[in-house]
Amino acid sequence: LAAQVRYPCVVKPQVLSGSRGVIRADSAEEFVAAFTRTVRLLRSLGFAPGTTGVLVEEYIPGREVALEGLLTGHGLKVLALFDKPDPLEGPFFEETIYVTPSRLPGAVQAAIVECASAAAAALGLRTGPVHAELRVNERGPFMLEVAGRSIGGLCSQTLRFGTDMSLEELILRQAFGFEVESLSRVGSAGGVMMIPIPGAGILRCVEGIEEAGAVPGVEGVEITARIDHRLVPLPEGASYLGFIFARGERPEEVEGALREAHRRLRFRIDEELPVINPVVGGDPGLAVIQ
Q1: Could you tell me if residue 290 is inside a domain?
Q2: What is the pLDDT of residues 3-61, one digit of tens each?
Q3: pLDDT digit string (tens) for 221-276?
Q4: 149 and 215 share a domain?
Q5: pLDDT band at 74 (very low <50, low <70, confident <90, very high)
Q6: Which of 101, 93, 99, 272 is nearest to 196 (CA)?
Q7: Is the peptide bond before 8 cis (omega within 30 degrees of 0)?
């Protein structure tokens, strides 16, 4: 298989989310290592051979965006188009910053919406939320993935509609046939940073939360990782350290506020101790460090 693949490519499990198990490979050797690692992850999560698969996709260079939309009888209504200003070039694809509105030219944004709308129609999606991830380069927009769901994690907190309606309320009101006052987003610019995990280990403490929250434009800092618990980075990991939310007059201000708030946070992560197994046939109170 490695000899048939065109490089660079991306190995991606058919299940999982949040870029978990997604690895770029630039050569046959890297492909074998990436494929093996992804399959090992699936097995560790209880997926037996034959119950799911692994996709091998062409790597698409370019800027990445996320589209949040709502399908109605009149087509796709864009609720927000997020720029992802940090490059996502691999070998792993840990997302960090989302900022809306997009700073891409209007014609490029229109092409993105057209691509997302066509992808949703191809899947038979007609009503309800749509979340799409795309990449844009000189050849135009390319669909990475699209699904009938809303944005994940706590990221939706950066979106408010009408008279301060949450994204979840908006989706439920549409689903139950209630009147939706407005699909217009509240505020000038907004963004969220999914705080990346800098390395594996045990999270002992997080300092600088108040200092980060004091950055102009920052609305909140939420640490979701638990103290004294294990941190696992991508591609095996399934979560972030937390989230930073910001608003401002312009997307550039929001991005700057998120980066400054993150710079003020300090994380103490201790190295994880080796696995300890009981001594076979000996005192159960004794153990061997491997």
Answers
A1: no
A2: 999 999 999 999 998 899 999 999 999 999 999 999 999 999 999 988 999 999 999 99
A3: 999 999 999 999 999 999 899 999 999 999 999 999 999 999 999 999 999 877 66
A4: no
A5: confident
A6: 93
A7: yes
147 and 214 housed in the same domain? no
Instruction: Answer yes or no: do 103 and 163 share one domain.
Output: yes
Q: What is the CATH number of the domain that holds 129?
A: 3.30.470.20
Q: Do 170 and 225 share a structural domain?
A: no
DSSP H helical segments within 176-284, as ranges? 209-213, 251-264
Q: Long-range contacts of range 6-10, CB-CB < 8 Å, 24 or more positions apart? A: 6/58, 7/31, 7/59, 8/59, 8/90, 9/56, 9/57, 9/58, 9/59, 10/56, 10/57, 10/58, 10/59, 10/90
Q: What is the rounded distance in angstroms from the CA atom of residue 110 to the CA atom of residue 103? A: 13
Please report whether residue 279 resides in a domain: no
**Cβ 190 vs Cβ 254: under 8 Å:** yes
Number of domains in the chain: 3
Smallest CA-to-CA distance from 36 within 19, 50, 23 is with 23
Q: Within 10 A of 100 (CB to CB), how many other CB atoms are there? A: 24
CA proximity to 81, closest of 147, 138, 132, 115: 132
The domain containing residue 211 runs over which residues?
189-270
